[in-house]
Design a protein that fits this description.
The chain is α/β, with parallel strands linked by helices. The mean pLDDT is about 95. The chain contains 8 helices and 8 strands, in the order ββαααβαβαβαβαβαβ.
Length: about 220
Amino acid sequence: MKTYSAILFDLDGTISDPYEGVVSSLKSAMRELGEKLPPTEKFRAFIGPPLSESFKTICGFPPEKAAEAVKVYRRHHRERGLFENRLYDGVSEVIERLYAAGKRLAVATSKPEQFAKLLLEKFGLLKYFEFVGGSELDDARSKKSEVIAYVLENMHIADKSTALMIGDRLHDVAGAAENGLDCAGVLYGYGTLEELSAAGANPIFAQPKDILDLLKR
């Protein structure tokens, strides 16, 4: 395993589980828009990809309708759903130990940046991250490749071989690759071993504690 001086974490599905808040915000937004909810088995698919993409592919909304749905969803999420969220067991210790070992830590998420900071502050983890990068409230800069580029620029990382992305979905792996970064996958989030392996994630960690293998080199 290579040695990395900077580690970029995805948020939803990697640091914390947002399922309850995503579902409550989705239900509220679709009710306000007068739209039918997608099938329950599709709810999990809203976690990971950019929100506008999910409204287009899962709900079949045209671009204008998807943009409106994003705005309504964001409002409900800010009012309630954001904090209906829980840390994965062991993640706090992993972040604390990586920080103590001198790793430069950042968050790269498709969640709005201000939401991500509020959530990390709630969990007591914001102080460990040198930079937190996310989307704008109107879903601009929501593609993972754009967010990662934004984080790298603000951290002044020129040598991409020194940085590692960690995420739970193929979007994390693809976004990292577009920026010349390696990407590790995690199996405790919302992606499968098949999805992450096919995308090229390496290594793949089964549990949060396994991420500490990065300190063995």
